[in-house]
Structures are given as structure tokens and as C-alpha cells.
Amino acid sequence: MRTRFAPSPTGYIHLGALRTALFGYLLAKKMGGVFVLRIEDTDQERLVADAAEKIYEALRIAGIAYDEGPDVGGDYGPYVQSMRKSDYLKYAKQLVANGAAYHCFCDKARLDDLPEGYDRHCLALPPETIEKNLAQGAPYVIRQLIPKGHTTFVDQVFGEITVDNAELEDQVLIKSDGMPTYNFANVVDDHLMKITHVIRGSEFLTSTPKYNLLYQALGWDIPTYIHLPLILREGGGKLSKRHGDAFFEDFLAKGFLPEAVVNYVVLLGWSPPDNREIYSLTELAQIFSIDGISKSPSAFDMAKLRWVNGEYLKAMDFDRFYRLAEGHMANAVKKPDVDRVALAKMVQSRVAALDDIPEMLDFIDTLPDYDTALYIHKKSKCDEAIARDMLGKIAPKLAELAENSWNGSDLYKFLTDFAENAGLKNSQVLWPMRVALSGKAATPGGSSDLLAILGKTESVCRIETALEKLGARQP
Ligand code: GLU
């Protein structure tokens, strides 16, 4: 088996393209095959500087290693289409000689005037006229001559597809600058590079009959096709640059882990054989199969990506997490005496994306102003009166607590012992304590973690502020 990823270097890597690359890679790995990277840069107008380098870099970050490609070599290169111009011209000429393609000299003004599709004006040109035009160096394109009849093929995902050839246009194969169109180059290269399985987005499904007619006209085997379903935005529409949800690099910039994005993207349109959702690329390369690919569009789900990312963050070894989180923590917490390691440990168990860290920790340096209605929490069986009474009683005890008990586990025991002695539920102590220390309903750690991180003086001071707010103290 030989598969390929054939991106056009037009910028960053779209999530759909990343998925195409992943599926091609995983299938080749699973079958002990070869995965090829080919740069499709024949549309010179759409080229973006450094885009090929961006592709190499993105694939490296994603962990997708290709066996053959522009920067690693291989037997069927060069793997950059603009460097293979003569190959395409040679086969286009062969098609012309076989009657499966023809020269077209129509100018833009004439083409623009045509109401629908090309009208085959140049198909009727006498051979002498064609000879004369070519000899005079008149600009021309080479068009595919679509024969009458029907074209049928079987896609591994979408099943059997039949089109009436009358619906297919005599598409351009070689442009007037001598470059092939994508539509021609992909056929020639997939053949020359011995690609057995063509994996790409379903937007190419409608063009595939035209490619098949080219394979037939050149006497070549048609590869196996695996077209992938669309990826839609939550709420419909395409993933887009404007929404910041289109490119792999966008997610990396937002602090998502490459391995989490990769894991998530593989699940878009492919269902694993068991019910797990977290897989390393190595595991995926053992279990991936065409059977699990669905033909219905898959919707991008940010909450799910965040969940997957959070699973990777929780599972990663603490040193790596610390290195990744350090900068984000430094943005939020400037106080020098805060224990960064304790802070990172607290955050690691709760964070879904590194980018969330500053907001998670925004209460550490300064207590935000908050509404005492926060003390009302049904599930914890807590209200303002309970909070006032509880905080009033616990404050002096906390102030007296020995410094060597000022750590997460001892503090937790202290809080729950206090609840028991006071005849309160744990939640009736933990909830108001969290609010008093953070001014927030959700914090990365529990009350005892917050006490440990803030330290005795700051914690007691925040509880005093709470008591003032709750009307138990004169401000
Ligand atoms: N160059 C095409 C693209 O980037 C690739 C399509 C294919 O895989 O055949 O959209």
C-alpha cells in the first residue's frame, strides 16, 4: 500500500487537511505501507511564500513522518509538482495523440462569454489550423475530451457513484503557462508515484469521474478511493479563518497540545473499534481502518477538543506540565512568594487548555470584588447566614493553626474536622471557604489547596473581608 498527502502550499494547515494527512499516514502504517508527501504547487497564483516549510513543520509537530517527500527524497520524486512540468506535458501530448485531449486556443474574452461550460469550439479545428497556431506560438491550453457514456466507480466510504459524462466539462489539463492543472497533475503523479489508495476530502468526489477517464485513456490502473466527509462548524457552516477554528496552527497558538489536536481530529469522521477516545498516534497506527470512516459530515466540537486536551494535560508528567504552564502562570500571578510548583499541581488536575490558566488564577494576586449571593449554593446546602456563622468561627482557629500544619492535606483534615465538630456538612464549610478565598464559584483547586497557596496571613485577611461583606464585621 502507498498513500499520499498532497497539500497545496497556500498557507497554514487546515484541520481538514490535517485529518487527510493523518488518515493517509495511519492507513499506511497499519498496513506496513509507504506514506508520501507531495507538494501541489501548480496554481502559481495561489502560492504563499514559506507555505511548504509550514507544511513540513506542522507535520513534524503533529508527529506525522512521511517516508517519501520533498525534503526526504524517494524514488519517484521530485515530490514538488512545479518541478515536474515536463512529465505532465508528455502525458498530455500522449492524450492528444490518442484523441482523448485537444488543443484549445480560445481567448479569455471568448470563454467569458460562454453561458455554460466549454462549447468545444476548438475540437472542430482542422489539423492544419492547429499546426499553424502551434508553429506561430499562439497561446493554448490542452483540454480533456470527455467521451459519451457513463462513468461508475466505487468509493470506499461513499459507495458506488455513477455520473452521466454529459455533466462533465472538457476540463483544462495544461494551462497556457505550460503548468498542469491540479486535476491533471494529481492523476499523473498518483500513477507515477504508484499511489494505491487516494485519501482526500469529499469535495473531490465530483471530479473523480474525470480523473478515472484520464486513467483509462492513459491505460493506467485506477487507485482505490477513500473520500472523507466534511467537517462542519458547531451550528453549521465550514470551519473558517474568521472563526479561528480552521487551522492546526490556530489551536497550537491557543495552547492546545499537538497530540491532543491530532487525537481529536482523528475522531472527526472515524470511530474507533472500542469505546475509548484517547489514543496515541502509535496506538492509532495499530487499530486504524477504513471501516470506521463515516460518510456523514462530522461537526467540530470545541468542548470535546477541550476535554481531550485536558486528558492529555492531566496525564502528562509534572515536569513537562510545569514547563508548559510556567509562562501562562507568570502572566497571571506576579506575587513572588506564591509556591509555583503547588500552583501548577493544582492547575494540572483541572485545566482543559493552557490558555485558560491566566483566567483560572486571576484571584491569586488580588481578591476580586464579588457579590455575597455567591455564598448561596443549593447543592452545598449553603447560604449567606451559614457562611457568616461558619467563617466567623473558623477564622480565629485558622489564625492559630501551627505553621507546620499549613499544607494541603493537613488543612483539608482541619476543614473537615471543623465541619464535623460544628455539626455541618463538609460542603457547608468548603463552599463558603472557596468563595471567601477566591471571590469565585469555580477555582482550579479545592479550599484546602487555596489556603495552602495563599498562606495564612492572606487567607485570614480574605476571610475578614468576607465577614465584612456578610455584615458580621464593621468595615
Ligand atoms: N492539492 C489538493 C488540495 O490541497 C489535494 C487534493 C488531493 O488529495 O488529491 O486540496
Notable characteristics:
475 residues, mainly alpha, Rossmann fold, Glutamyl-tRNA Synthetase, domain 2, Arc Repressor Mutant, subunit A, three-stranded antiparallel beta sheet, two-stranded parallel sheet, elongated, binds glutamic acid
Secondary-structure map:
Layout: E1 2-5, H1 15-30, E2 34-37, H2 51-62, H3 85-98, E3 101-104, H4 108-113, H5 127-135, E4 141-144, E5 150-155, E6 159-164, E7 172-174, H6 182-192, E8 197-201, H7 208-218, E9 224-228, E10 231-232, H8 248-253, H9 258-266, H10 281-287, E11 298-299, H11 302-315, H12 318-332, H13 340-348, H14 357-360, H15 384-400, H16 408-422, H17 426-438, H18 447-454, H19 456-469
Parallel strand pairs: 1-2, 8-9, 10-11
Antiparallel strand pairs: 3-4, 4-7, 5-6
Could you explain how this protein is built, in words?
44% of the residues lie in helices and 9% in strands. Among the domains are: 83-228, Rossmann fold; 248-318, Glutamyl-tRNA Synthetase, domain 2; 367-469, Orthogonal Bundle (Arc Repressor Mutant, subunit A). The mean pLDDT is 95. Strand 1, helix 1 (15-30) and strand 2 form a beta-alpha-beta unit. The protein has a three-stranded antiparallel beta sheet with strand order 3-4-7. Strands 1-2 form a two-stranded parallel ribbon. A two-stranded antiparallel ribbon has the order 5-6. It is mainly alpha-helical. It has helices at residues 15-30, 51-62, 85-98, 108-113, 127-135, 182-192, 208-218, 248-253, 258-266, 281-287, 302-315, 318-332, 340-348, 357-360, 384-400, 408-422, 426-438, 447-454, 456-469; strands at 2-5, 34-37, 101-104, 141-144, 150-155, 159-164, 172-174, 197-201, 224-228, 231-232, 298-299. It is elongated, with a radius of gyration of 32 Å. It contains 19 helices and eleven strands. The structure holds glutamic acid. Glutamic acid is lined by residues 6-8, 40, 182, 186, 200, 204.
